[in-house]
Amino acid sequence: MTSSRKNKTLFIDKEAASVLELVKDGLLFPVTKLMGTKESEEVLRTGLINGKTFPFPFVLAPSGQKNVDVLSSLKKGEEVTIICDDLEFATLIVDETFQINPSQRIKHLYGTDDLSHPGVMATMKRIGPWAISGEYTLLRTHTNESKNKIQEAKHIIDAKHTTALVMAANPLHRGHERLIRQALDTTDLLVIFLLKPYDSANLSYEIRKESLDYFINNFLPKNRVIVVPLENSYIFAGYNEIIIDAIVTKNYGCDRLTVGRNHAGLGMFYDCNSNKSIIDKVIGIDIEINIASEYVYCDKCTTLVSKSSCPHGQHNQISYHADSILELLKLGLLPPAVLIRKEISSFLLSKLYPNRFKNLEKLYYDLLPIEGLLKEHTEKDFYLELIKLYQTTSLT
After folding, report:
1. CATH 3.40.50.620 occupies which residues in the chain?
2. What is d(CA 73, CA 134) in angstroms, rounded to the nearest whole number?
3. Going by C-beta distance under 8 Å and a sequence separation of 6 or more, which residues neighbour residue 95?
4. Greatest distance between any 2 Cα atoms in the chain
5. Residue 227: which residues within 8 A CB-CB, separation 6 or more?
6. Is 276 helix (H, G, I), strand (E, B) or coil?
7. Could you tell me if 209 and 194 are in contact, meaning their C-beta atoms sit under 8 angstroms apart?
């Protein structure tokens, strides 16, 4: 093999690299390689690869003038080195280079090229006018520990059914908790695929993971729940998200996938005199997809209820919108316990606003009931006690 130092080079980002790794790990099967023009056209025409659903052509088309210059000059059989974060990531033997329409590519991924759509602008900047296909070899291979972890857990409890949930939990609220419990009621093992984004917006993956671990370790049978990080790349966006979720979770070893009824990708359409959803387009992927109830808090029922079982109507119901709950937290406000568990909101605020109080101990002893013993308290402790005061009703 020619030394990579003498090869022409292509530059990709971590997002593209993670998707190339998914393929090598077998997690995007039936996709096993980068597609050329003939395969891409077949997928666009049928939505299938070897009789199995895949919603769009799997191509590599990195943006940037340097990449365009290299891609337009490559010949079949030539070896090219792929660089990610200034490190050699892979080598590829060119089978074909071909021009694509970035706007059309965006439509295949998102169902629209409207730049006001979340994610479209960012993805548009990453896609160039030339694509490349060919066999590629990763230069730094690794064992997929999550795959092994799932198989070990299945073996330990002799799981007959393994259910997947894909969520951001940004933040983890009461609606998420009920969805997790509902999924756990009908399965042996639950795998929560926690989305791990490539930007630092909102709550970090580590903070969301710690919140989820707290809930699992304290309120669930923890031997039946596993949390797996899932790199939240561009292929998981748009109206095909549920299809890609089904493919990836099946290849991780799950035989069921639960999605929320209010999932953004669960759009309904009318065809052949019946209502259908994106789920009806899944062919040849041996996984059962279940649509969970949408949960709300009803102030007449005074509890968390399924919208389908509550008779009191929307004017009596509080919905669980993660973005609005997150906005309260980002403003430094404690969300009501009916929206998010107090232990979790206290933890999140202590992480979002470290060292917020000038004299925490004075505040603690001035405002809160104490047992007479002097001891050091954390900001999380303070928030937990403060929310108890919010819940006091004798003077209201």
Report:
1. 145-295
2. 15
3. 36, 76, 133, 134, 135
4. 80
5. 191, 192, 194, 209, 212, 213, 216
6. strand
7. yes
pLDDT digits (tens, 9 = 90+) for 109-166: 888 888 887 788 888 989 999 999 999 999 988 888 999 999 999 999 999 999 999 9
Closest CA to 362 of 350, 346, 348, 374: 374
Q: What's the pTM?
A: 0.90
Backbone phi, psi, residue 96, to 5°: -160, 145
CA angle 206, 207, 208 (to 5 degrees): 95
Superfamily of domain 145-295: HUPs (3.40.50.620)
Burial class (CB in 10 A: 0-12, 13-18, 19+), 165: buried
Other CB atoms within a 10 A radius of the CB of residue 327 amount to: 12
User: Is residue 166 within a helix (H) or strand (E), and if so which, with residue range?
Assistant: strand 162-167
SS3 52: strand
Q: What is the pLDDT of residues 291-337, one digit of tens each?
A: 888 899 999 999 999 988 899 988 999 999 999 999 999 999 999 99
Structure-block tokens of residue 130: 């030339």
4-138 under CATH 3.10.400.10, yes or no: yes
Residues of the chain with CATH 3.10.400.10: 4-138
DSSP 131-151: EEEEEEEESS----HHHHHHH
